[in-house]
Design goal:
By secondary structure, the protein is an alpha/beta fold. The protein has two domains: 2-115 and 321-355, 3-Layer(aba) Sandwich (Rossmann fold); 129-314, NAD(P)-binding Rossmann-like Domain (Rossmann fold). 31% of the residues lie in helices and 19% in strands. Helix 2 (47-52) links the parallel strand 2 and strand 3. Helix 5 (127-146) packs parallel to helix 6 and helix 5 (127-146) packs antiparallel against helix 10. The longest helix has 20 residues, at 127-146. 45% of the residues are buried. The model has no long low-confidence stretch (mean pLDDT 94).
Length: 364
Amino acid sequence: MRIGVPKEAAANERRVALTPDVAGRLKKSGFEVMIERGAGTAAFFPDEAYAAAGATVSDRNSVLQSDIVLQVQAPLAAELPRYREGNALVAAFQPSGDLLRQLAQRKLTAFSLVLLPRITRAQPMDVLSSQATVAGYKAVLVAASAIGKLLPMLVTAAGTLSAARVLVLGAGVAGLQAIATARRLGAIVFAFDVRPAVKEQVQSLGASFLEMAIEEHAETAGGYAKELSEETHRKELAFLAGAVKDADIVIATAAIPGKKAPVLITAAAVQGMKPGSVIVDLAAETGGNCELTQAGAEIVRNGVAILGPLNLASTVPLHASQMYAKNVSAFLGHIVQDGRLRLDFDDPIIRETCVTYAGEVRKS
């Protein structure tokens, strides 16, 4: 069975779906691995490294004719006719109606890794967690570059500089990594999450947990935060308006799977923040946790910088690609047996991730 890895075509995407070491392991396990020329260059993996690992470096058309095509992002619609009918695609993309119809028309067996169920067997394949780790780390560095002060407390000949106060909204994977990174840089860190169960994790990283009394259950069976009632959300907004006033940096990471990101910082709350404060909104791609966030832009309101970065994981392409490649390799090991694609739809991993099969849209 041949695996093909094309160069990512999405704008500003620097990651690659397979790294040379993972490609070498797949080759030893019986796969034929074909990489498009230059596919790993932006992530600092040269063609020579793939060739040394046993992969074949080839042109794009040949790669897209492979039995299984591995990508980071979804293919461009204009390129779908270049994929061989009936082959398989594995990538990390949010399934949308138009894309799914186009994949089905091409009779591709397409898997979206963002739909992996939260079960123990799927943890080695969890691309959302691996890439969120990178994004949470980088968000703090972006904020540290944007703010006009140092993060650690410093005692200098010119006097003592107080440590920056960082507030992290959402204590999922990205939020926990943001907490850890801000603490390493010497900031005083606070965190908020509607799930009381994460309090211990937050405190173990050296941050203070901001607790708000929530009478309803705010966590799904899979461990994700869920949408709050209108009344509880109003209380949440008022609580956070008070919390952001004292923050120098706010890292917003709150998300609800499959839904628009919850607004946690209103325009009025931004007005109450200190001039020179910075908000980095990691939820910008799904609407933003700040009411004023503009996806892909940096704006300033009342002296507060509001950053809505997109695809932060791609800005750390080497490590992001290494983790993604290991996730994809684990997924391949699950769906391929004896050189053939195993489509057992009773298996929750396959059932939840397979979005198109045999010309039909399975999930939307």
